[in-house]
Amino acid sequence: MPNVLGVATFLLLFLTLGSTQQTTSSKGGCDTQADPCGSASTQSEMNLCYGKQYSKADTHLNTVYRDQIKRLSAGSPQDQKQNESIQRLKSAQRAWITYRDLHCSIARDQYEGGSMAPMVWSMCMETVTEHRIEELSAAYNDQ
Q1: How far is CA 43 from CA 38, 39, 50, 117, 135, in A?
Q2: Domain boundaries, given as residue ranges, for the chain
Q3: Of 50, 96, 123, 135, which is the most buried if we count CB atoms within 10 A?
């Protein structure tokens, strides 16, 4: 059972953020975007909405990852360095997936048994996934 202070802190943070969220843009500034789940009025609706947001982020990540693999595969299939780079990226992605799953499970576990546990998990998964998209884009697109 989560402690009362932890729940109160989360709710205060959630309410303080209101219906906007700030994200760092690729240009280094902050963009203010409307919370796509701001109109959800019940916990069930919030759980569903944030689940969909994570699903969109995951689909985007899969596209970015496939594009990076294609880009790295553009040379000769006999190129040893190219093949090693592809295998390293695949290994890094598998390790990142393990990290993401464990990290967000811990976040969810703090609210286990509560109706907001699925929302906390989805929000964590979306946030970590968006960060991974930024990492992949920054690391491999500027070469």
Answers
A1: 12, 11, 10, 10, 32
A2: 87-143
A3: 50
Inter-axis angle of helices 117-140 and 43-72, nearest 10: 20
pLDDT in tens, 83-92: 899 999 999 9
Amino acid making up residue 58: D
One-letter amino acid at 59 equals T
Q: What is the CA radius of gyration of the chain?
A: 18
Whose CA is closest to 121, among 132, 112, 134, 130?
112
**pLDDT tens-digit profile of 36-63?**
899 999 999 999 999 999 999 999 999 9
